Structures are given as structure tokens and as C-alpha cells.
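Late entry, evening session. Most of the bench is empty. Finally got around to the prediction I had been postponing all week. Sequence below, unchanged from the version circulated by S.P.
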Amino acid sequence: MTRLEKKLSALRADGRKGLFIYITAGAPDVETSVRAMLEAERAGADVIELGIPFSDPLADGPVIQESSSLAVRNGMTTGGVLELVRRIRRESEMPLVAMGYINNLLSYGFDGQKVYDGYEKFVVDAKAAGLDGVILPDVPHEEAGSMRAISRRNEFHLVEFITPITTVERMRETCSEADGFIYCVSNTGVTGVKKLDFGVINRVARAARQFTSIPMAVGFGIGDAESAVAAAVETDGVIVGSAVVRRLLDGKFDEAMALIRSMRAALDQNYHR
């Protein structure tokens, strides 16, 4: 089993909900992002979702866009993200899953003259560095077949999505081939803290259970302990990004960690059997 599978299996066996924390690699700077990952684990995070900065992060709202733009200006690259993973692996075995866009990975194999199979090169190098998987919101399920095959050969997770508008047919196809966990997008917009009815995505997650036993985690819009509890009713965990990243960008590191601790406590209080 991979680190991610072991962690999610242990959480389920213990009757606990997973807390996934998104941190943009290199924002507000490299050292802060490394420190934030390690401290987030101590504060109660189960999985770190490590953002690969990209110039056009289409699934992300203003906060993650700002952090991504800053990280790009700071010189962060896909290779630099893998170096951060190597640094984390010297101190921690927590699951690490990258989130990026397909251009990040297609260009990873470019040597200035030839374009290699960037995805396969990325998977091999990422696995060696200690990364456990990747999330690519701009790759539709129908176009990811070869990527799924490459990922499985390397015991590397390619995480896919369901949303409030996913049809039953598409849900069946996606869930039947899901790996690692299923990312349940809470709304049809972009990332960012907002007031949502999480009952919608919880109903979608409940419907998806008939097609898979793979863990599910809800992301987009979760900004405090109350919304984390509401989002986790039918899923195995929650993904929190903008609320943490905003505090890191504003220099409120301790406040970001306090938020993670409050979410951990609320999830355990409401769901830990």
C-alpha cells in the first residue's frame, strides 16, 4: 500500500475523517511553504495537497491564483516542487499529493530541443522524490486513460473528480476507475471560501458509493470548522485550501495553524467514533 492508501485506510478503520490541507509550493516563499507543510501535519492534517504553481490556474479562485502567481515570480517550477517533496521526506512520511495542470507536466519533459512524454517522466521522478499522486483538474476522465495506466504501473495515484452536475453514467465510469481517493467538488465554481449548501455534494457522494469503495474528499469552499463538519457528512474527508493559503500570504502563520487545529478538533468531535 502507498502512504496515501495506508493513511486513508487507517482513518476509516478508526472512524475518523481525513483533513487534507492545500499549500502552494513556493508561496509566500519556499521556506514558509516547507514549514507550513510540516507544521500542518503537527496541527492535525492527514494529507498535504501541494500546489504546483501555474500561470493560468483555471480551477482556482483569487487566493490560489494570487499564491500561484507569486510562486511563479519566486521562480518555483515543477522540478522545484519535487525538491520540496524531497526536503519534506527527510522529516515526514505524511501523504503528499500534488495539484497542478497538464501543461506543468507536459512541459516537464522538455529539454530545449525535444519534448518527451512529460507525464511519464514526471510520475517516475515524482515517485522517486516521495510524492504519492497528482490531481489534474483540466484533464477529463475520457482523456486520461494512458495517464491512468502510467500511474498504476508506478503505484502513483491519479485522482479524479465528481461534481454536483456529474451524470450517473459519468459517475459510474469515473468511480469504477478511481484511484487513491475521489475529489468531490462542492460547487460548479472555482476554489475559495464561500457560503455553500454542502448537502448537494453530500448527496452526490452518497450516490457515488454504489459504484466504488474508494475514499472521497470534498473540496472548494471550506473555510472554517463548521463548514468542514458540514462538508464531511457523506465523505471520508475535507480539502481546505484558500482559507489556509490566505493566512500564509498575509503573514498570519500561527493563525493558519490554529485554523487547521480547530478543523481537526471539530471533525474528531463530530465524527470520531
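Two things to note before I forget:
The radius of gyration is 17 Å.
The chain has one domain: 3-268.
Will write this up properly tomorrow.
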